[in-house]
Every structure is written in C-alpha cells, then in structure tokens.
Amino acid sequence: MIALPTPPSLDLKGKRALVTGASSGIGQGCAVSLAAAGAHVTCAARGADRLAETVDAMTRTGYAAKALVLDQNDLGALEPVLMDGAFDIVVNSAGLARHTPALDTTPEDYDAVMSVNLRSAYFLSAWAAKAMIAAEKPGSIIHISSQMGHVGGLDRAVYCASKHGLEGMVKAMAIEWGKSNVRINTVAPTFIRTPLSQPTFDNPERAAWIMEKIKLPRPGEVEDIMGAVLYLASGASAMVTGTSLLIDGGWTAG
Ligand SMILES: NC(=O)c1ccc[n+]([C@@H]2O[C@H](COP(=O)([O-])OP(=O)(O)OC[C@H]3O[C@@H](n4cnc5c(N)ncnc54)[C@H](OP(=O)(O)O)[C@@H]3O)[C@@H](O)[C@H]2O)c1
C-alpha cells in the first residue's frame, strides 16, 4: 500500500490559548471555537461581568476556560500576561471603532482607536512571541483585523489606518519570527453583527451600503469567523504566516 499524505488536524488538546476581547462578539466566538477544539482558553477583556458570563457559559458547556480582567491599553498590565509562561495561541480581538468623516476626527478619537487597535496589538504580539521563542515553542498569533485593513471605507479613516497598520506590522513580524516557528496572521472580516457594528447596521444608508458591497446574500455572523481562527490556530495552517485571511463575502473582490 502506498503511504497517503497525513490529513490536517484541528485538534488543540493540550494547547494554552489567550483570547482578548473574549467577552463579546468575534472574540467570544474565537474563545468558543478554540475551547471546543480542546484548548484551555484564557478569556480577557475589561468588563468583569460580561467576561464572567462568557466564562461561566463556557465552563458549563464543558470547555476549559478562565477569565482575566485586563485593559490592554495598560501595557504594564499586559506584559506579564504574555511573559509569565508562553501561550501556544494568542488571538487578539479587542478593538474599538469611532467612525466619523476624516475632517471631523478629533485627536482624542484618533488616540483611542490607535491605542487599542494598533499600539496594544503591537506589544501584545512582541511579548507573546518573546515568550514563545524563549520557551522554544511553536506558536500562532492571530489578530482580528478587518476588510478595512485592505480597502478604505466610509467615515473610517482612523479605523482603516489602524487596521492597515496592523496588516503591515504582521507582515514585518512574520519575517522576523518565522525561523523560530512563531506564526502571525490576521483574520479580516467584513461586517459581522456584534455590538461594535450595530450602529452601522442601524443606519439604513450604511446597511444598504453593506448589502451592496457584500457579494453573498447576507452580512457576516460571528460563526463565519470561528472556522478561520481555528484553522490559523491549528497545525492545519502550519505553513501559513504573514498573511491575512479575508472573510468578507466577496467585498474586496470588486
Ligand atoms: N463587528 C464587525 O463588523 C467587525 C468587522 C471587522 C473587524 N472587526 C474587528 O473585530 C474585533 C472585535 O470586534 P467585535 O465586533 O467583536 O466588537 P465587540 O463586540 O464590541 O467586542 C469588543 C471586545 O473587546 C474588548 N475590549 C475593548 N477594548 C478593550 C481594551 N482596551 N482592553 C481589553 N479588552 C477590550 C471588549 O470588552 P470590554 O469593553 O469589556 O473591555 C469586548 O470584549 C475588533 O478588532 C474589530 O475591529 C469587527
């Protein structure tokens, strides 16, 4: 009998994962996806109550999860989370949007968006990789970017700047860490129904824009992101680094 190629495994048993922004929306979906594949998931966010509800529901379902109250804009609090024992998988879904026309953006809006979407993402990546490299562990770092990291969008100059910055950062970090088997990628969703995007869905003009640009007949749901994150976290994507997996229903196709 000839030897067949080994099929890919999505099994994450024995893996330690950190998911930021895990108390809501996409991050919550990522936490559930990794835990359902067998990982022990540390779920991080600022608000303790919503986080406790998520972790409670996960553990009652039989998943291995614990809560970590963290404001990742506080880099002094973020560093020890990454450096005290390397994670195998880090998913960064914490993020913020302040959508205004570029002419109306205030420095305060700019700083608020950049601080969590890019500054914290930068140091989270660096410290996660530092710990993985020191522990000689292969690792996977995944940022939830956006289709707005690939194209422009209405009222989104700061948000687009933060997500395009994230995409560039990931490419450069992948070059540095590939030889240590630390992979870093982004998932770039289209509009997904979450508390963050609800104001856009509630605006009829913007809702029409969404359905005009997405080629498939519906907007995205959190479940649409869960498979992409599982793929990038697992050995099934062992040769994938420095790239972006667009889950955009064809938005950027034209
Ligand atoms: N929804 C979409 O249509 C869409 C599309 C493309 C990309 N994305 C991206 O996907 C990511 C998640 O978005 P979402 O739609 O899931 O938003 P969401 O439902 O508002 O969830 C955001 C999560 O991030 C946490 N968070 C925010 N600031 C934080 C901070 N400083 N420190 C720690 N945690 C913080 C929030 O919890 P606390 O407030 O309690 O901290 C919450 O758990 C974001 O990066 C967003 O840009 C979303």
TrEMBL record:
A Pfam family cross-referenced in the UniProt record is: adh_short_C2
Q: Which InterPro entries match?
A: L-xylulose/Carbonyl_redctase, NAD(P)-bd_dom_sf, Sc_DH/Rdtase_CS, SDR_fam
Does the keyword section mention NADP?
yes
List the Gene3D superfamilies hit by this protein, alphabetically.
NAD(P)-binding Rossmann-like Domain
- Identify the keywords attached in UniProt to this record, alphabetized: NADP
Please list the coiled coil stretches: none
Name the source's superkingdom: Bacteria
Q: Record keywords: Iron included?
A: no
Record text on subunit structure and interactions: Homotetramer.
Family of the protein in this entry: Belongs to the short-chain dehydrogenases/reductases (SDR) family.
The name this protein carries in UniProt is SDR family oxidoreductase
Give the lineage.
Bacteria, Pseudomonadati, Pseudomonadota, Alphaproteobacteria, Rhodobacterales
